[in-house]
Inverse folding.
């Protein structure tokens, strides 16, 4: 099995002492799967879509894509992509953008477009998709919402090692419940037949 991951700092494993404790690594180990992780801390939904469609997703059995907060974006300047995020520079770096240009309707519309782009891209490539989000205030439906009160967060408001263990378990259980793929749990050596 091959899995493609993409997302923001929650997927990337920001603030973990060992990034091998992040859910992408732990779930892949549990499933005995090879994986590619395109995630990046501070990234936007635009970046998630851009980097995902640059990849040949048809080479994977499953995509696990975690969308982020709708108020993030990016732009290309001087040969590199610049992240636009209200947390950058302790909230001061893009203050003008958020005070004078950004509105919630723009964020909702962006989320709708990027969410649908991911869904359609995986469908056209006949690759199974599990679509997650860390956004608490989304108007849209996802397979799993990660940012729940029972997920332990560290000082930077990112999941702790235990938080990633809980997320790993929830993703695994969601995959089984939704019948996305026949799952072999390498840790228990049990095979659970899933009817597609």
């Amino acid at each position: 099995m091959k899995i493609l991951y993409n997302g923001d700092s929650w997927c990337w494993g920001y603030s973990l002492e060992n990034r091998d404790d992040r859910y992408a690594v732990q779930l892949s180990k549990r499933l005995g799967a090879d994986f590619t992780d395109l995630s990046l801390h501070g990234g936007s939904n635009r970046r998630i879509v851009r980097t995902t469609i640059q990849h040949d997703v048809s080479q994977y059995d499953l995509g696990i894509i975690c969308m982020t907060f709708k108020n993030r974006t990016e732009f290309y300047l001087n040969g590199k992509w610049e992240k636009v995020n209200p947390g950058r520079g302790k909230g001061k770096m893009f203050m003008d953008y958020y005070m004078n240009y950004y509105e919630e309707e723009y964020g909702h519309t962006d989320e709708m477009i990027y969410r649908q782009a991911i869904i359609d891209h995986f469908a056209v490539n006949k690759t199974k998709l599990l679509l997650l989000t860390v956004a608490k205030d989304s108007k849209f439906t996802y397979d799993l919402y990660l940012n729940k009160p029972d997920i332990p967060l560290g000082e930077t408001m990112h999941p702790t090692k235990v938080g990633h263990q809980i997320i790993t378990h929830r993703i695994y259980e969601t995959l089984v419940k939704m019948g996305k793929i026949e799952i072999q749990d390498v840790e228990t050596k049990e095979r659970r037949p899933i009817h597609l």
Summary: Residues 188-196 have pLDDT under 50 and may be disordered.
